[in-house]
Amino acid sequence: MQVMRSKKWAVLIALVVGGAIGAGIAIAATTTTVAADTNVVRERIAQISTDGNFNSGWHIHPGPVIVQVQDGYLKLTQNTCNPTVVGPGETYIETPGIPILAEANKATTWTITEILPNSAPGAPDRVAATDPCNNR
Asked: Where are the domains of the chain?
């Protein structure tokens, strides 16, 4: 009986080690091909805090904006005119060229990462827009 148990353990260990080696080989086979690296964009990162009653006004960004909320809740309205509430630990990606409105009724902290065209240095990172939702 003792010999049978040690054989079972030996088989189990062999399977675990074999699985780990197989996973390592599968990971090692992963490749990345860069289609283009044009260096024609710039990145702007900013942390924003408000104590409440924040309203960004309708505006448009020339590139995508990644919004990450650390504390509080940010209400973002874009595309469908139905607001999306983003809370702590959540991320929202703004669509470039589409009007957006950001609002926070209470204390909120978030970080934005803007990806901007580099073709016009000094160009604004946002421009004012009219309310596409007809003053909800």
From this structure: 1-31, 41-128
Instruction: Give the residue-averaged pLDDT of 76-89.
Output: 95
Q: Could you count the other beta carbons within 10 Å of the beta carbon of residue 124?
A: 12
Measure the CA–CA gap between 104 and 120, rounded to whole angstroms. 31
Q: Which amino acid, 73?
A: Y
pTM: 0.70
> For residue range 43-66, what is the model confidence (pLDDT) as tens digits?
889 999 999 999 999 999 999 999
Q: Is 102 exposed, middle or buried (0-12, 13-18, 19+ CB in 10 A)?
A: buried
Adjacent-strand bridge partners of 48: 110
In CATH, what is the architecture of 41-128? Answer: Sandwich (2.60)
The whole-number pLDDT of residue 75 equals 97
> 87: closest CA among 102, 103, 100, 69?
69
